[in-house]
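User: I'm putting together notes for a lab meeting next week and I want to include a structural view of one of the chains we've been expressing. I don't have a solved structure, so I'd like a prediction I can at least talk through. The sequence is below, exactly as it appears in our construct file.
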Amino acid sequence: MKGGGRLRPKASKQDDSIMGTNNSSIVSKRSVERLYYPNEPHFFRYFVKKPQRRAPLINRGYWLRMKAIDHVVSQFLKETTEKKKIIVNLGCGYDPLPWQSWARYPEASRDVTFVDIDYKDLVIRKRDMVQQTSELNSVLKNPQFPEDGDVLLRSEQYLQVGCDLRDLTRLEKFFSSEFDLSNSVVFCTAEVSIAYMDVETSDALIKWIGSLPYSRFCLLEQLLPGGPSHPFAKTMLAHFDKLQTPLRPVLAYPTTQDQENRFKKAGWADVRARNLWELWGSLDFLSSEERMQLDEIEPFDEWEEFALFGCHYTLLEASNVHLTTNQPHNTATTASDSSAKLDSQVASFNGKMVYTESAKSNGIRRFGASLSVKGENGCPDLKGNFGGMGVNNRLGSIDIFTSVSQGGSTSPGPTLRVKPETRMCHTLTEIGDCGSLLVGGRSSPDKAFADCWLYSKLSHTWERVDDIPVARYRHSASTLDDGSVLVTGGKKDSKTVLSDTYLWNRQTGWRECLPEQDGKPLVFGALMISDVTSTALKTNGFLVGGMSTDGRVSTDLWSWELNKYPRELSIRWTCHSEADKARNPYMHRFGACWTQHDEKSLVVGGIIPGNLIPEHAEIVALDTERETGRLETYSTNVERCDTRPLLIGHSITTSGRSLLVMGGGAVCFSFGTFWNKGCYTILPTEEDGGNLHALDKQATGGSEPWSCLNTVDSESSHPPKISSRFSPLENEKPREPITIGRKKISSWVDFAAILSSAEPIILEGLDIGSCTDLWTNSYLVTVHRANEDRMDFVSKNFQYVTKDFGNFIESIEKGEKLYLRSLAVGKPSELPADISRDFPEISGDFHLPPQLAAVEENQHSSPLRISGPVSMWLHYDVMSNVLCQIRGQKRLLLFPPGDVEYFDFAAGASSSSVDAFGDLTGSKAAASHPHEANLNPGDILFLPSLWLHTAKPLDGVSVSVNVFFRGLQHGYAAGKDVYGNRDLQAYEKGRQDIVKLSKMFENLPPDIRKFYLLRLADELDQKARSS
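Assistant: Thanks for the context. Below is the predicted structure for the 1027-residue chain, given as structure tokens.
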């Protein structure tokens, strides 16, 4: 929004912040308009000068918001009445609702008056845009643009009004003077607008509108169905607090029931509220075909996050007179109904949740999969979480988890020389002592994997096994008693849902299980559960939940029977009755995890149809009733910890009688990403409390929390480089660093000679401006506060953090390990950093000396760097640069480009995780050739391209400016290179050629393929070393 008008000066700053939310929302709506509405006129285009394509989650979320408002508005427009229709957009922002209605529903809108109301400053800007845009003003009948008064644009069918929504006296005066209210129906819509008002003033506005003779209300705003402590709600509330636009009514009216009561208390006769996730699945709102058509527009697989968003927004429709139209009843099961069913069951599991936060950002990933890792020296097994999505990219590593008492002494530290490509949404199924079978997964929603790998617990290695015949992700997998793995369903790409079933075992590989009848499930992301009553020839189980082809969580419950005949496999699917489905509402989930526990299946997290899973039902138990064979849902009694997990994208496993929850998190719409930053252990308690299975108290006594020990093999998803070129001795000491020389130069000719030598050198005695004297902490803070900007910096774990600049300086003065690398103001993802543009107040204090004219003429970027006592990671830059030290002392270690083979740089990566300042004895890096530079204020270090380097300050605060410059006429990476760290085009093309070359050998036996690929690798290595 959007919002109201002017209360000066006290509310001025917050009103400006509220108006600022409009700028972000219309960019998102313009993104939706461009993609999702190609066949109708576009009106947001006139209010968004620089469109941006939003992420699929944001696009679909805003599409749903826009569709919800349009749905209610169109119904009102199409109603038959003799009264005058007036549609009022409260807190309209730049929304072009009138123009959209005239274009979509020309006949129904013919005699309707549209009114836009918002802050006067905002409406003036909107009026000016309309006045200057012929495509907008040409449809207005007799438009006038008054300079005085609240009405800023007047035409026969449209009014723009600048009025504070909190000022009911002015609103009443406007409506009574403009309209014959006794013969009019006033329809008001408020899309996330009165959400920023105080509870009392927003309630007063709702009550006043309800007091009009004939009025309707359409409200779309936030909910807190799981309370303010729910991770999504917590992230959402923090986002709006940070924008200085706190959400107030949502704390008073957190649920749809609360919102309905709010309106009823204000005197509204008919009230109906639904959250957007329920609305999405309602057939009176969208048909299955309409939902499926959305998948044709852009690839989408953020279903859990979309559901979380939808559950936290409500669409409320209200009328102050009873309507004769029969609205369909809410068919989604409510949380209160479901909780009553669960509470009536005897708890099948009693436990206590314990949270252990991980150190050094270990364990942060979502949509990975769990596996068991063999402990060394007779120690108990460890647990792992493989693959998934990390903070910045997909991962190919394994987080290792251990019990607290085992500590760090039992980590196997597996060396995975060949391992699967990075992926997410895959399955890893335990098959006893053999290890775990990895099946499928994806990179993007349209790139599924067919490769399958066997992870060995004993040797800590991956072995490639037969590919599954059809690539898939979000499939269902279950292990059988004989060590086989059954896989069904999933998605082949963003538009194709699979229904086939395959069985894998070590001897026969993959075999298709042919269906014995026509009816079979067509879902992805379902739970496939094996029944413990299975026999040698027949295996039984259930398939529960999942997502259907039309984007709704399936409420179907399927049982299956696998017949393992000698020559063929067949599977019989049976869909259970509607009564069985309705009896267990929390059984039907998408994106949940399950594990076997005490002959039951514990189901954890995920999403359900129409609602947010209440906290008490996030973990339930499924069990087969022996007499009827039906699958039943049982409650669990888990005492929660203070740090609430977000049970989305998580992985689970068991250790003894304990349940472990690893990883997890979600993108919380446009509000930020929430991560589970530790391990949750659910320890069984000794009280049986009438449990169906009494706990083994002796086993329970040894239960203890688990935590993330470390992350192994986090560098590469490809076979490692050939290591026979060097074999450092076990105790080989690294070389002593070579001290980089110092030099004084007097002209650009001297610097040209340095460029030609391509060796690092410290230049001293050059004039870089008054910055070496002026840039004290207090000076930088004072100057920066004058601009009221906020700065982004990138930490070593690549998380972007926003921090007030003054607080940042205070923090590093106290010795906190913080690092700032400036980004381009306003367009950090589009433009490289430029100190003269990004910091105009201080840029005059710094300049390059005339001797470095070649640098200035070919400049790419000039980021400002400020750091406390923290080391920069080892990396290389494709462009040469000069590092100008302004304050403090800094030590750098540099290594020549030829040393790249010693530091485990992943393919396509420019950074290494090797600690070059640490002890390199016995490692490959011991054979490297280190150089050392110690910089003082005023020194300039010339860093040639591709020299590996790392840095750390020697005392207090370090301030410096990097100036990167191009040294090649051509050959740099195509397209944008904001940070100047993209590798050369030739290298990127070479990597693509390696993939093509490797595929040429795919159809050969493994030993022959390996033989010839090693020969080619040797030939390439010889060419590199002889050049």
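A couple of points you could mention at the meeting. Residues 973 and 985 are 5 Å apart (CA to CA). The longest strand covers residues 184-191.

User: Perfect, that's what I needed.
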